[in-house]
Amino acid sequence: MKNKDALSNPDGIDGMESQQESKKIKTACLRLLTRRDHSRKEIQDKLAVKGYGRSQVSAVIDELAQESWQDDIRYAESYARVRSQKGFGPVRIAYELRQQGIGQGAVDKIVQATTEDWMNVLERVYTKKYPESVAIDGSERARRIRFLLQRGFSSAMINILFK
To answer: pLDDT tens digits, residue range 35-94?
Structure first.
C-alpha cells in the first residue's frame, strides 16, 4: 500500500502549485509597490481580499523586504511627510501609521523627524482656515479648537496658539 503523501502528491504537483502561487503573489505585490510604497499590513490586507493566504503573502513580503522593495520605515516616512504637508498634526499622523501596522517606536521617531516645528504647521493650517483675525466668542473658539483637534494637533499646541 502506498503512503498518503505519494497518492496526493505523485509528482510534486503541490510544490509546483505553491511556487506558482508564490509567483502570482510576488507579481501582485510588485504591481502594488511600483505605484507607491505600501506597509506590510496594507499589502497583506489587499492580497487577502484577493484570496491569497496570509502565510504565503507574508513569506513573499519578507523576500521583497530583503530586496528593499518593501520597507515599512520608508513607507511611514513618506506617509508622514505627505500628511504633514497637507496640514495634519502629529497626533493624527501617529494614529494613522499605527492603524497601518507601523510599530509605536518607529512611529514616534518618524513623527518627530518629519517636521521639526509642528507649531508652524499648526499656524499655517489655522490661518488658511481662518484668515481674518477678529475677536471670537467662546462657541467660535470651541469650534476652532475642535477643528484643530480633528486635524491631529494636541491640546497643548492649540493652547499655545491661542495665547
So the answer is: 999 999 999 999 999 999 888 999 999 999 999 999 999 999 999 999 999 999 999 999
Query: 147 CB contacts (<8 Å, ≥6 apart)?
Result: 129
- pLDDT at residue 14 in the model: 63
Q: Residue 154 has what DSSP assignment?
A: -
pTM above 0.85, yes or no: no
Cell 477678529 belongs to 134
Cβ pair 93, 111 in contact under 8 A: yes
CA distance 74 to 36: 11
For the chain, which domains are there? 11-70 (1.10.10.10), 73-162 (no CATH)
Write down the residue that cell numbers 506558482 correspond to. Answer: 20
